[in-house]
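ligand=phosphoric acid mono(formamide)ester
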Amino acid sequence: MRHLLSTGDLSRDEATLILDTAAELAQVGDRSVKKLPTLRGRTVVNLFYEDSTRTRTSFELAAKRLSADVINFSAKGSSVSKGESLKDTALTLQAMGADAVVIRHGASGAAHRLAHWVDGSVLNAGDGTHEHPTQALLDAYTMRDRLGRLDGLRVAVVGDILHSRVARSNVLLLTTLGAHVTLVAPPTLLPVSVHTWPCEVSYDLDDVLPKSDVVMMLRVQAERMRDSFFPSVREYSRNYGLDGERLGRMPSDAIVMHPGPMVRGMEISAEVADSPRCTVTEQVANGVSLRMAVLYLLLGGS
Ligand code: CP
């Protein structure tokens, strides 16, 4: 494996190896093992054309815990504003010795394009509405960690599927790992192609909740929305928001996930977001060891 562009490229064995490696690396960063020397002398570039809180800092921390040098590049304040293309920007960073480029870009397919231009590894940190593979991997890791298995798990992914790279990456990965995924959304927030995806589709959250082991809530991505698709906040929350009453109708050991950033009061109430059954902060913590595992396997491992 040279790049990580799509979870659809991962076999069951490869995906399991990443999760197992992340579990082994989970102790790195605590008091006893601050850092590993594995990627000493290697350079990781974080090339971010879209905003990020979790993914960029998580990749930076993961690379540093493996002793890599890290360059954080944000399109804002760079020569991109003078018209420099993605290709020329990437080749410039490669000329400085980048061994891996972690890219987030607003255009679906940007990571695949980049993989044709640079010699090093490309890690897709979110490309448009297409994919976000490390988010899906850290989600799968968190499910397995909390519930002890992925095989046969019933996972509901709820919300703005149309604009969600997280949903697509999760459907592809979770089905590879033996879970059953149901997408729940209003018809206007589902892609036309959804019936070709390897999952079920429902418009009725209240029907799906009692049958789910995991409910993954997604943010409505207003910034990618055309006016006609935008539901009113009140109507959306009433039909697709997860509040304490709905949480009570889920199986008692079922968990609530969210990739972040959350919009409290819209897709998730504060009561649910702060509940011990909500894994949002665990997902963030697991994301560091998961990204360490991916960097290790692409750059330093066998
Ligand atoms: N989940 C996620 O990708 O969050 P950021 O946009 O903050 O990176």
